[in-house]
Specification:
The complex is a heterodimer of chains A (256) and B (323). With 256 residues, chain A is α/β, with parallel strands linked by helices. Chain A has 2 domains: 1-32, no CATH class; 36-255, 2-enoyl-CoA Hydratase, Chain A, domain 1 (Alpha-Beta Complex). Chain A contains 9 helices and 10 strands. Chain B has 323 residues and is of the alpha/beta class. Helices cover 48% and strands 16% of the residues of chain B. Chain B is built from 14 helices and 9 strands. Chain B has helices at 7-21, 27-48, 53-60, 68-75, 121-126, 134-150, 167-171, 174-187, 202-206, 227-234, 241-248, 252-257, 276-295, 299-312, and strands at residues 76-82, 94-101, 109-115, 154-160, 192-201, 213-217, 221-223, 263-265, 318-320. In chain B, strands 1, 2, 3, 4, 5, 6, 7 and 8 form an 8-stranded mixed β-sheet that branches. In chain B, 51% of the residues are buried. The mean pLDDT of chain B is 94. The chains are: A alpha/beta (256), B alpha/beta (323). At the A-B interface, strand 4, helix 4, helix 5, helix 6 and helix 7 of A face helix 7, helix 8, helix 9, helix 10 and helix 14 of B. The complex binds zinc ion.
Chain lengths: 256, 323
Amino acid sequence: MDAVFTKCERCGQPIYEKDLGARFNVCPHCEFHYPLSAPARLRLLLDRGSFEERDSGLLAGDPLGFDGYEERLKKARRRTGLDDAVVSGVGDLGGRRVAIAVMDFRFIGGSMGSVVGEKVARTIEHAYAEELPLLIVSASGGARMFEGVYSLMQLAKTSVALSRYVEGSWPYISVLTDPTFGGVTASFATAADVVIAEPGARIGFAGARVIEQTTRERLPEGFQTAEFQRDHGMVDRIVHRLALRGDIERLLGFVA
Amino acid sequence: MILEFERPIKELEERISGLHRLAGGSEGLQVEISRLEEALDAAKRRVYSNLSPYQRVQVARHPDRPNFRAYRDALTEDFYELSGDRLFGEDAAVRGGFARLKPELGGHPIVLIGHDKGADVKARVAGNFGMAHPEGYRKVGRFYELAVRFGLPIVLLVDTPGAFAGRQAEERGQAWAISADLMALSRAPVPVVSFVIGEGGSGGALAMCLADYVGMLENSYLSVIAPESCASIIFRDPGRAAEAAEALKLTARDLKDHGIVDEVLPEPLGGAHNEPEDAIDTVGDALGRVVSGLSEADPETLVAARHDRYRRIGERAMQDGTA
Ligand SMILES: [Zn+2]
């Protein structure tokens, strides 16, 4: 089982899965960034053993009785071992304490329902109460349709929480990873002091397919990539995943 | 435009006006007319008291439904329109400026902002059917700032299928524009009053209804996604939009029951498009009452209450394992 080869979807080169894991899912040949689970992301960013999870045990209800939602939740919980699409808490980054929330795309496409909104809001409040820098890593297809307007209200919930935090002088750093769309970009993920994105990550409001269907426009090469968003003035920096921790550490040196 | 389920009503209406045209006014004719009028009343009651969620969505989208301009003209005076986001351009999908509520509604000066779907085809196209680009949302953000600067209540009229999904909207940061508006409303130390008068499509609607008071006309809707899109994704069939509309719990009544909005404003029988003045009066009464009530409030208390409202909204959507 440990000498498993896989083929890079991007460059076609064979990769040892072990090597891919050691490089936090970045292809050693073409540097393509594959999705990264929340637990692996926390290992990537935080000092070893420093993460203290908070607010675990919050579980989504099924507020609308939406057909099929319970099953999807159960399946996602089983498959990921997570309660929902975000893991949050506090930890040290380069010896500096931060409040952190990391989204996990594997959990129903990283969609934002009540639990994601609540945990993000609580993370913001921990940062506020404990005077910590705030770090949120997003990966989300958008709002969680199965929760209907409750999912829409998470944009409001996270915004009111954030509006208090930004009255203080602690920094909020948002990291956008592939993909980040919809309700998450239209709320907390873009309302940061500094917005960092991973190379090649697709970031936007509406998905490219929706835009093509509704407007019949041909979309340019590289549309909605991190590089596109930086060139349009929407993202501050594009940072390679393996350099991310050091990059944020440098930034915190200025603002925390 | 006649909606499919309105057809029996329209047929009765046509027969009645046909008989009226016959004139003469024989007693037999009068009897027939009053019989049909009773049938019409019954038909309206039957159809309109049993609208399915998707039928309400269709009513909310009706082109004859009173729009921003109708409310503006009927409920305010001296509308002093302002334009532009100071960054890129002017977006006619949303309009706003200073206005004064009519004297009978209290006469308060306000900042009035609304999605403008337009009353005719030309205006509808010019306003992109109420779907704003980022410059529209940034213009709205400017108006929020002006309201705060001059201590004026913000009055919002929501009527949009959603923020526009297009190449240029993405190039200019649609998501960034919306999140900035949400942040601005979250901390604006002035009363924020919002009415959903027609369509409340997702983030593009929320950017104008994070408020101290949200009232919804009976046949308006507020949803995270259009029922057609939801049906395409969940059922892989946009034709099953009626089922999706049912599942999404997007009607005014549903949202009131779920504690998301404050008030359902009843529409006249036959919907706002049949009796626009009635619907506008209902919104006007609520508007005058709410603005008068909130104008006395202490600004910091308002912001704190708004924070708590949205911070706690939808608590029952979770099972708290830590509680
Ligand atoms: Zn590769």
